[in-house]
Amino acid sequence: MTESSTVDTPLKKLVGEKTAKALAGHLDLHTAGDLVYHFPRRYDERGEHTDIRSLDVGEQVTVLAQVQRTAVRPMRQRRGNLLEVTVGDGSGGTLTLTFFGNQAWRERELRPGRWGLFAGKVTEFRGKRQLNGPEYVLLGEGGEGEAAANEEVEEFAGALIPVYPAAAAVPTWVIAKCVRMVLDTLTPPADPLPATMRATRNLVGLDVALREIHRPSTKEALYRARRRLKWDEAFAVQVTLVQRKLRAADWPARPRPPKPDGLLAAFDARLPYELTGGQRDVGREIAADLGTAHPMHRLLQGEVGSGKTLVALRAMLQVVDAGGQAALLAPTEVLAAQHHRGIQELLGPLAQAGELGAAEHATRVELVTGSLGAAARRRALAEVAEGRAGIVLGTHALLYEGVDFADLGLVVVDEQHRFGVEQRDALRAKADQPPHVLVMTATPIPRTVAMTVYGDLEVSTLAQLPQGRSPIASHVVPAAEKPAYLDRAWRRLREEVAAGHQAYVVCPRIGEGPQSEEEAPKEDDTGRRPPLAVTEVAPLLAEGPLHGLRIGILHGKLPADEKDAVMRSFAAGELDVLVATTVVEVGVNVPNATVMIVLDADRFGVSQLHQLRGRVGRGSAAGLCLLVTEATEGTPARERLDAVASTTDGFKLAELDLEQRREGDVLGATQSGRRSHLRLLSLLRDADLIRDARAEAITLVEEDPELARHPALAASVAALVDEERAEYLEKG
Q1: Model confidence over 331-357: pLDDT tens digits?
Q2: How far is the C-alpha of 590 from the C-alpha of 598, rounded, in Å?
Q3: Could you tell me the CATH superfamily of domain 276-462?
Q4: Beta bridge partners of 82
Q5: In whole angstroms, what is the distance from residue 557 CA to residue 579 CA?
Q6: Quick one: DSSP state of residue 516?
Q7: pLDDT of 451-470, one tens digit each?
Q8: Residue 31 and residue 393: Cα distance in Å, rounded?
Q9: Is the domain covering 472-514+528-647 a CATH 3.40.50.1220 domain?
Q10: Domain locations along the chain
């Protein structure tokens, strides 16, 4: 009789030491529980196509396909034959499998008509998609040379064939075999969900769900299994957020109520334009939060150019009026310096406390960055420590030891996704009592993401653009298919410069610079060239299509004073074109810049392109963004760019971005370097389930805040959202 196992049983006891080592090394799977929670990525059915045409070059794939024909030909460069096998997916898409060396047995095995799972890396040769020497397992009975595959074929006896997230050394059929071995011995785990909740929400038991998701008996059974396991994920996140929101309500903060005749009132009186309705509404929400004895924890999201910085500045002035200090943390020195200049200009004499001509309620605005000289740094830190600087702007240099505040009342984090959790928390820890926190992002967040990731934050949205902002037109420039379009793009840039405007050219890479020869990107094994680089493109443009124009370069490896000088020159109109990396992605504000050309646009993410595009059209003249790519029509990369070009609605693009990224990253897997635990839940498609899970979590946690009466559930929540991820959620 086979010995039974539990979710904690090491895999080496169940699948053998060699296989267990491969599962651990390549997929980070160590126990029976790890493996049964390694869910199939999708399910194939024989006769249904895998859509070979959608495969990306360089992607590691597993496809279900049928052998169409085979051909043997001699190799040109060396002795021996090459076997080429053409497989199809039923939709007209084909893939060539290539096997090197004399392998007559493989030709007999891979005969036309046979179905199989084929795994390997997609490459392209003379316009054809291919897999070189792929791993495979054939499905169905009979056939010479198939004895070795018979055991694996057992895993695919059902109508639905699970396809797992796999590795080259551990293909999907090996994982399926291991899962069967584990499930055959696994003692049914205790179900942590209360029986009443399972009945009310019509959820199947945990043991049934785990078995059916791997070896589904029917499509209906698979749907019910996935629904139960998605519920577990959603419920664990919501319980964690509700618990933390309740705990936060008990933390004391120093109230910073508005002052009717202070610095903020003086600032509002000197503003040369009216606030938008959205800015006024959000301003009232923030002002009310700042006036309470609980620390504000609010997310302010708004389109590029919607006026978030002005809203944040008004909040900072309210805190200064109440005797406190406010710190704004920016992701780059370029942006920190620009915030410093912009805020000083907006405040004018209100930022000149202690100077001749200062206004009655004035404060001081200090900039703290890593590149400050020793004397300037000592002076700035003294202003901050003694409380004379009411507003402090800086990069992560604000986090260092030696930067002390007299009374830190508000922390504003600009572009929060650019900072690690620990960095944000280090700044917050510089206050004697928990400060109020305002997190800003220009990447719009779909409602379900806000509900799941920021469930313990209040969310404010600025949807209205201020007056004077111009529309931005975006177009894809298919450089490989239509080189004349690229020539026209450079002419279009010259036309804008001739009309007195300026332009950005954005590249994905800095270039050789200080890199060694070995570190420079090489052509990868799919034949794709390295991404274009600022230091290589700028001289080519200066000698070629942009000859005679004043060109500057900007990237993250330039010394801080040089970066600042370049940005000042561009802002002053002394440069016509700025060739830059994504260092211009956030916050850079040059109203005279009207055109942006993004080279190798397919190498950027959706939200990144949307952010970049927001750098133009910031004045009275219309903006133009040209997305240059060699991606061909019909590929996912090209479809992504077409979508970006088709709309400036950041919320639509955020949903597209979410569909294309691993949604589990929202739980901090990327930040922590660990596997994400949101494996099934779709933040877009499962909005109703997330809403229901939140309602159940609120009811349960209000009755039993620490889940003392539900120890199994508390353990399950801790496993799905461990302390590290819980802290990540809490810190926003």
Answers
A1: 888 788 888 988 998 999 998 887 877
A2: 17
A3: P-loop containing nucleotide triphosphate hydrolases (3.40.50.300)
A4: 73, 100
A5: 14
A6: -
A7: 666 666 678 888 776 666 67
A8: 48
A9: no
A10: 11-187, 276-462, 472-514+528-647
